[in-house]
Amino acid sequence: MxxxxxxxxxxxTWRARGARAWARRARPTSVRPSSSRSTDxxxxxxxxxxxxxxxxxxxxxxxxxxxxxxLTVRGERNDRQRHLTRLYHQMxxxxxxxxxxxxxxxxxxxxxxxxxxxxxxxxxxxxxxERQLARRVRVVIG
Length: 142
Description:
Layout: H1 5-25, E1 39-43, E2 47-53, E3 63-67, E4 70-77, E5 96-103, E6 114-118, E7 121-127
Antiparallel strand pairs: 1-2, 2-7, 3-4, 4-5, 6-7
């Protein structure tokens, strides 16, 4: 089967477009949005627990807020060692402001929440709201 100049040109055009599309997708690993923090959310019978991986951030730079069924962790990783005169060959450690919001699976009581930060892992324990048990009302006929 022979190909015509038109079909060859058409195939080459699509090959070139495909290569450009892949080149746009192939981002260096150093381009990682600062809001992208690895997060686990799980619940126990009494609590909702959120784990956030934020190594290199001091505890004073972390802000945690709960609004409704959403939890937001904000902070800033400062790298005082970076200088403009350095010639980086690879840079994957994100610096600057970050914010991560996660949906909570249950209503929680933010007033009783606690957080610990150790070895780059922030653990937030949020006690669930205690639901009032259904109350039986006795009807008196009278």
